[in-house]
Amino acid sequence: MHQADIIVPILCRFWLEDEIWNGVAVDLPVAVFGESFEAALSNLKSALKCHMEVVFESGKAAEIINHLQEKRREYGFLSMDEISEDSPIVKMLVAMKKPELLAVTS
Q1: Do the beta carbons of residue 32 and residue 22 sit within 8 Å?
Q2: β-strands 20-25, 6-17: how paired?
Q3: Helices (H), 14-60
Q4: Distance (Å, whole) CA 58 – CA 52
Q5: What is the C-alpha separation between 61 and 54, in angstroms, rounded?
Q6: What's the pTM value of the predicted model, to 2 decimals?
Q7: What are 63-87's pLDDT values in tens digits?
Q8: Which pLDDT belongs to residue 1?
Q9: DSSP reduced 3-state for 27
Q10: Three-state DSSP state, 50
Q11: Please, what is the Cα angle at 80 between 61 and 3, to 5 degrees?
Q12: Cβ distance 24 to 31 under 8 Å?
């Protein structure tokens, strides 16, 4: 894997409703669902990867990266250590090396 130029965190929330897990990227127009938390988490990773690939292809990567970095400053109090394993909040990381998306991880 190539070394990333930019790693941007994305705050994601998950909740159980009518026995279906829902997940949303708080600062991006990306939402999913799954039969389990793990399925919703996997679906959100895939959806974020697709969303970011479209962002890159559309030439709006800089705009979205700036937006996410601004949100990162707002959420600065949330480090990975402060998010408990049973929390409905997950911080995913998007790793990018111009001009491609390298990974979406949690």
Answers
A1: yes
A2: antiparallel
A3: 37-58
A4: 10
A5: 9
A6: 0.75
A7: 888 888 888 777 665 555 565 566 6
A8: 46
A9: coil
A10: helix
A11: 45
A12: yes
The 10s digit of each residue's pLDDT in 3-14 is: 667 777 788 888
Q: What is the DSSP letter of 98?
A: T
Total Cβ atoms within 10 A of residue 43: 17
Distances (CA, A) of 70 to 10, 63, 67, 86: 11, 11, 5, 26
Q: In what order do the strands lie in the sheet with 6-17?
A: 30-34, 20-25, 6-17, 89-97, 100-105
In sequence order, which residues have a C-beta less than 8 Å from that of residue 37 and are 6 or more positions away? 14, 16, 21
The three-point CA angle 93-94-99 to 5° equals 160
Backbone angles phi, psi at 5, to 5 degrees: -80, -35
